[in-house]
């Protein structure tokens, strides 16, 4: 089956995005094997204290397909499920959650890549075998179908309220691989925007460390007290032994003196 390219059907790049349109062209929502909803953009919405986006993928092929979801910022998002197998006509909802403590206001810079390959009878559907298969296969392979999605916040989103839950300003340093495992890392200034969760985690670690230190000090104090008692007991025993020896010596000298005096008389 020939691969159909949808690059020419995609809408132009939004001017609000930080990267030029030449570096990212969204594909159509429907390919030879998968149908993707939403079509081009994952819109995140507030769910409790989280920012969550949902992507529905459907197998429109006549054979089983294996899918894999990658992102430009794996340290920023939690994707569940990120891989799996879809029988024909089956669908799955993929939840994308922004990790608390990350940069909420730069979410529109990130992108997701949904890839899939058709499975034949010779390919095992064992999760370990599929993991190895995705490690070996290249994303640029002609057998891999790709769907690219941008990220966005809703127009009526209250960012001021969410900034208290998610990290503040910081610089993201892009890596060499756009969808690599560690394609982005935070610069030193991002530590200044540590979110509430990270601050609480750091506080808990500090408290735990202080508790361990206090426990060690208490054990040391108990050992010192025990050592002091042992020292006192040994000192008393030594004093008693010295007094006993002195009494014996005095009695011995007194007996010798009396014996000598009797002989002289």
TrEMBL record:
The keyword Nucleotide-binding does not apply. It holds the Pfam family Motile_Sperm. Residues 1-32 are annotated as: Disordered. Keywords: Membrane, Transmembrane, Transmembrane helix. The keyword Transmembrane helix applies. It comes from the Eukaryota. GO terms for cellular component: endomembrane system; endoplasmic reticulum-endosome membrane contact site. Residues 33-152 form the MSP domain. The chain crosses the membrane at residues 227-246. InterPro entries: ER-organelle_contact, Ig-like_fold, MSP_dom, PapD-like_sf. PANTHER family: MOTILE SPERM DOMAIN-CONTAINING PROTEIN 2. This is MSP domain-containing protein. It comes from Anopheles coluzzii.
């Amino acid at each position: 089956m020939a691969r159909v390219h949808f690059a020419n059907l995609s809408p132009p790049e939004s001017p609000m995005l930080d990267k030029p349109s030449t570096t990212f062209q969204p594909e159509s929502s429907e390919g030879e094997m998968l149908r993707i909803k939403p079509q081009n953009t994952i819109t995140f919405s507030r769910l409790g204290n989280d920012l969550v986006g949902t992507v529905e993928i459907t197998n429109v092929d006549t054979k089983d397909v294996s899918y894999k979801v990658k992102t430009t910022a794996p340290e920023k998002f939690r994707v569940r499920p990120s891989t799996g197998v879809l029988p024909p006509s089956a669908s799955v909802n993929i939840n994308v959650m922004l990790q608390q403590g990350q940069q909420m206001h730069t979410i529109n810079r990130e992108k997701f890549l949904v890839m899939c390959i058709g499975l034949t009878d010779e390919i095992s559907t064992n999760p370990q075998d599929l993991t190895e298969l995705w490690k070996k296969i290249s994303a640029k392979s002609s057998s891999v179908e790709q769907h690219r999605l941008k990220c966005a916040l809703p127009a009526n989103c209250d960012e001021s309220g969410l900034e208290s839950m998610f990290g503040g300003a910081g610089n993201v340093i892009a890596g060499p691989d756009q969808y690599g495992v560690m394609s982005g890392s935070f610069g030193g200034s991002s530590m200044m925007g540590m979110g509430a969760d990270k601050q609480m985690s750091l506080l808990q670690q500090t408290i735990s460390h202080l508790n361990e230190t206090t426990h060690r000090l208490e054990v040391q104090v108990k050992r010192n007290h025990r050592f002091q008692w042992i020292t006192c007991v040994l000192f008393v025993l030594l004093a008693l032994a010295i007094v006993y020896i002195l009494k014996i010596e005095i009695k011995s000298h007194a007996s010798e003196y009396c014996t000598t005096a009797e002989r002289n008389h």
